[in-house]
Structures are given as C-alpha cells and as structure tokens.
Write a structure and sequence with these properties.
With about 150 residues, this protein is mainly alpha-helical. The protein contains 5 helices and 3 strands, in the order ααβαβαβα. InterPro entries: Cellulose_Degrad_GH3, GH, Glyco_hydro_3_N_sf. Its EC number is 3.2.1.21.
C-alpha cells in the first residue's frame, strides 16, 4: 500500500509506470503472470457468433458466465480477441476482471485472430516470465486501463 492515500501502488496513477509494474509483479502469483500472457478468443464466452469470417456476436448473443468463471477464474487473462467492437460485452467482461479476479487487472481487448502459445510453463524462467508480463502490465498502465477500464 501507498501510505499517502491507502491504495495499492499499482493502482495509483500518480506513481510512475515502472514502480506500478514492479509493485504488481511482486503481488502476482506464477499463475496470474502466465495468464497475463494468454489471449482468449471471445467466442469461447458467447452463446452465439456469426458463422462468417467476421465472427461478430449475433445480436442476441449472451455471455456464458460459467465459461468465463471456469476459464478466467481468479487469475484473470491478458487479452480477449475476436469480439469486434461489442462495447457492452467488453464492459461486462472488464467488470468481471476488475471485481472478480484477485488483483483486478483489466483485460486488454484486441482483434488479433491468430494466436500462438507464448509460454511453455515447463521451460520458461521466472525472470523471463516477469519481463514478458511487465511489458503487458506496462502497456495496460500506460493506456490507463486501471483508471478507465470501460469502453464508452
């Protein structure tokens, strides 16, 4: 905690980015760090998607919260892709990440359809993991996702 205003350093926008990232890394479990390097396809969590190449949610698609809870759980996730500009869905998933995960790390939403596995848990060192996760956290903090996590 930061004595000046009783919030965690990583949540304090008045603290420099490097200090915020280091504070957050120090609080994270190995599993939470790995999850920040993972990206999930948004359709995984939806009740319906168009079958076209666009993969946009159908108008009556709903978030399947049981799938969100089982995949994202308490550890969170770095990125969800493939929802193609669905602000209501973004905000609902973001709210879950902020309120239901242990550290409340916001999700980064992107539209990259091609994803490769970034981490092989059996071979990566903790130092390498910390470097990779610090890059993701650095971007989330610079983008202001802890202060303004929702889409307007």
């Amino acid at each position: 905690m930061n004595a000046t205003n009783d919030i965690a350093i990583y949540r304090n926008p008045d603290i420099n980015v490097e200090a915020r990232v280091n504070d957050l890394l120090g609080r994270m479990t190995f599993g939470e760090k790995v999850r920040q390097l993972e990206r999930y396809w948004g359709a995984t969590f939806m009740s319906g998607m168009y079958s076209s190449m666009d993969n946009k949610p159908v108008s009556d698609a709903r978030i399947q919260w049981d799938k969100v809870m089982s995949r994202i759980g308490d550890d969170g996730v770095g990125c969800i892709y493939g929802l193609f500009g669905a602000p209501k869905v973004y905000n609902q998933l973001q709210q879950y990440a902020i309120e239901q995960t242990r550290l409340g790390i916001p999700i980064l939403f992107c539209e990259d359809k091609h994803i490769d596995r970034v981490v092989d848990i059996g071979t990566i060192s903790i130092k390498s993991l910390d470097i990779a996760v610090s890059r993701v956290l650095n971007q989330k903090i610079k983008l202001g996702l802890f202060e303004k996590p929702y889409v307007e």
